[in-house]
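[Discussion] Sanity-checking designs against the backbone

I'm trying to build intuition for which residues belong where. Below is a structure token string of 87 positions. I'd appreciate it if someone posts a full sequence so I can compare it with mine line by line.
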């Protein structure tokens, strides 16, 4: 049986006439407050929810009723949005 021919792959070389992207140079590290605020919002949201459940709805704000759950989770969701800005 005849042996098949082995093909050599060409090595990729980038075109020389294309300038590098400016966006790559613009990426700077995020400010120090970004992870601090995000972690603080997670902690506040969790404490809010735990307090609401442990006190059977009397605290943090009794007049809000079940909206306390929305307040706790909104802190956590907002922190996820802030974490998207972290580099």
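Best answer:
Here's mine. Compare freely.
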């Amino acid at each position: 049986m005849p042996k098949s021919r082995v093909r050599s792959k060409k090595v990729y070389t980038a075109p020389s006439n294309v300038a590098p992207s400016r966006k790559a140079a613009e990426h700077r590290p995020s400010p120090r407050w970004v992870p601090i605020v995000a972690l603080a919002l997670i902690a506040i949201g969790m404490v809010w929810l735990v307090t609401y459940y442990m006190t059977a709805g009397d605290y943090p704000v009794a007049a809000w009723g079940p909206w306390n759950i929305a307040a706790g989770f909104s802190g956590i969701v907002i922190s996820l949005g802030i974490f998207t800005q972290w580099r």
